[in-house]
Amino acid sequence: MSLSLAPVGEIDEYPLTREDRLDSHYFMAWERRRWLNCDMRLKATKECRALYFDLINIAYDQSPIGTLPTDLGVLAKMVFEDRDHFEQLCRLEFGPLHKWRHVRCGGEIRLMHPMILRTLTDAIARKEDHRARSEAASVSKRLLRLRTALAGYSKEIAANDAALRWIDEWLVAEGCEYRSSSWIERGIARWSDHMLDLTMAQKRTRA
Fold this sequence. Notes:
four-stranded mixed sheet, alpha+beta, 9 helices, about 5% strand
């Protein structure tokens, strides 16, 4: 038996994919005040509240993250509950699947909860922001090391931000992992060739 919550035409596409993961997160954000005052907590039975919370935790380890399968028999096994009894609880207004609804996950129909999706979206946004900051810091340190290395050859090139970034991008494109003196010298030579090409192009344009 599968849960029927909404007409097929009203099913939205789930915004997260199987590629969106939070493997390093061993906790979930829980809006305590919202929970303490919501209808699910105030009107549901203790059993339904327990199963509801259990399913939320389970959803965080599903794929796509934050979703559940629609088959009530499968869900009953997930929460170690008798299938028939679980199905009866799900028929209640404030049952274990209160406010869960169908969504499309590619070619599959699964269940999602708006609250879970909101907390996951925030967590993924924070993850991406942290990764962007880490990458920016890594690039900054890499450029600082390169500037120091260039200064040993030419203080003028080392002080030239355009030259610094061009040589850095060239080294990255060449797959240089260890920036030895030979690689630095090749980078400086390629920068000089690049500037010569630009100068010749400008002369041809003026001519």
